[in-house]
Each structure stands twice: as C-alpha cells, then as structure tokens.
Amino acid sequence: MATPTPLPSRTDLAKKAGRYRLVAGIISWLDRYLSWPLPSRPALELTIPTTVSKIPGTIQLYFFTATGTLLSPGEDEEQPHTKRPVLIDFHGGGFAIGHPLDDARWIAAVLHAHRDAVVVSVGYRLAPEHPFPAPMEDGVDAVIWLWEHAGQYRLDRRRFVGECPGIKLAGLIAFYPATDWSRSRIERDATNPVAARKSMITPDVFKFFDDSYLMLENLPRKVGTDEIDMSHPYVSPGLAPEGLILASYPGIVAIYTCGWDQLLVEGNAFRERLRGFVGPRGLVHVGGFEIEDVVHGFDKRPSFFLGNGPRDRMYGDAVRQLGMMWKEKSPRGFVSGEG
C-alpha cells in the first residue's frame, strides 16, 4: 500500500511563496519599467483595516488616474458632476503571489480611454499566510470601504443601492478566471490537452497555489456534514445557483478566456451560462470572448519594444465593455474587475 504524501507545512509553503513572489515581481518590474509605452503609476496609496475577516490585518489600495493626481479627501463632495466612475481591480496570482501594480498596463488602457475614471487596485492579503477565505474577504472589505468613502474621493456611487453591504455594482470584468473548483487540475488539463504543453505554469506551481489557498480546514462544508464542498459559490462561482447569480451579479458582465489555458472550458461555459440569463428579469449583457493561441497570464509578460497584439485586443474590448457599464444615459458607478 502506498504511503500518502504528507501535506506541506505552512513554513515550507511560505518559503516557496517567497521564491515565487520574487520571480513574479521581476517579471512585473520588466513589464512596468522596460516595456513601452510605460504604464501609469499610482496617484495615491492608502492602507485600510480589515473588518470582514476573522483575522485582523490591513489592505493596501492603489489609486490611479489619467492625470496622476487625485483630489484631497472632502474636496468638491457636493458637486455630482465632478464625481468619477470607478474600476476596482483585483490582481491575479492564485491568491498566493502577485501585486496590485501587476495590472498597471491594464489600468493604463482603461485610463487612456476613460480619462475621468479612477482605478483602484487592491492589495489583498495572500496565501499561505492568509488562505481562503481571507483574500476574498479582503476584496469585499475594499469594495465596502470605497463605497463608504466615495464622497471623500469624488467617486460616483449612484449605482450602489441599499445599505452596505448591499452594494450594487455597475459591472464585472474577469480575465481568464477559475470558476469550477469541483474539477481537479488533472481533470481541467483533460478538458484542454494543449494547455499542459503550452502553459508557462508548471504542475509544481499549480500545486503550490492550491496547497496555499485551499487549506482543508478552511474550506466550506456541505450542509449538515463535514464533507468539503468544492462546488460552493465562494469557491466555484460558475456553479452558483441561478437565483443567487441574478440576485448578486451586476447587469453587465464580461469574461475573457485563453485558448491555451486549463481554465478555458469552464470559463467559456460560465460565460455561455450567463448569456442564458440575459433578459427582462435577468442580466442586461454578457460580453467577452476567447483569445486564441495564448496561455494563462499572457498579458502580464514584458513586451519590451515588440508590443502584444492579443493583449491589446483583449484590453481594447474590455475597455469598450467598461463604456457600456459607464454609459452617460445611466448613472455611472463602480465596476469590479479581476486581473
């Protein structure tokens, strides 16, 4: 009988995290400082306290604007015409690596097209130091804090209805998201065999992500049992019941997927499922598409002087989706985006 492989300790995972974060940081630095055109830099950095998570801590918020400046808190609070639409950005990295500045190039594309907008990139806490559900809860905290302080920073919250945390977002954009954790990594590769051959992410890195974020003791259980429920909406949003989606999702959603990605099939399936909910009593519009012949994270590579056509195509369409979410004939509000 084979001996089960022991789960890595948090100490071992933290050591791996340090190495992987260093490599990811170098790649991000090359993209932000040695690839042209140079993207935007933050106009303001803030640290806010956590409130949703049971484990106290802090969250970093990075504000970006087209001009590189942001009015001081309280200025022009009573002038609705000066308030600005907001994109709240959550960087990628399997909830274990990455930094809010990694999405500076996507942010630059947004601000180039929507010069009155504010983009806030969220520095949520990372696993394995803070596994599920802490990173997700930090995202909720960031949205709540920005809603509560919208007047201070001239952020347009007219799309928010009800009392906090009953916040209504104007839209949602997701770049190659994980939507179905009821499938293992092996099962996901089987749905798109080219992904394993083309991916820049090795199986060891995927295992590190999963071991770090999805610690067994923290995962949701099926009602009335101790059995782990990987189909729970907090883990697998693509499997959420229709009623929950219609009650909690904004009217406009856009999902982009990568042709050489193990997450391709589940991302495409979720986008098509959401399109089935478009109607008078459901969603308004579901956009996005598959970018062929690219790997997961293709838009985060440094391009130097060569450019990145597929990235420009994806960002360009996502910016147009933002235009629908922020169209002038409707009150403009907050949009949540995942990098």
- What is the N-to-C order of secondary-structure elements (H for helix, E for strand)? HEEEHEHEHHHHEHEEHE
The CATH architecture term is: 3-Layer(aba) Sandwich
The number of distinct helices, counting runs of at least 4 residues, comes to: 9
β content, as a range?
Answer: 15-25%
GO biological process, one term: antibiotic biosynthetic process
Pfam family, one: Abhydrolase_3
GO molecular function: hydrolase activity
Protein name: Alpha/beta hydrolase fold-3
Short description:
Strands 1, 2, 3, 4, 5, 6, 7, 8 and 9 form a 9-stranded mixed beta sheet that branches.
Q: Can you walk me through this structure?
A:
The chain is of the alpha/beta class and 339 residues long. The protein has one domain (39-338): Rossmann fold. Helix content is 32%, strand content 16%. It has nine helices and nine strands. It has helices spanning 10-33, 104-113, 134-148, 185-191, 194-198, 203-213, 242-248, 264-275, 309-325; strands at residues 44-49, 58-65, 86-90, 118-123, 171-175, 252-260, 285-287, 290-295, 334-338. Strands 1, 2, 3, 4, 5, 6, 7, 8 and 9 form a nine-stranded mixed beta sheet that branches. This is Alpha/beta hydrolase fold-3. InterPro entries: AB_hydrolase_3, AB_hydrolase_fold, Carboxylest/Gibb_receptor. GO terms for molecular function: hydrolase activity.
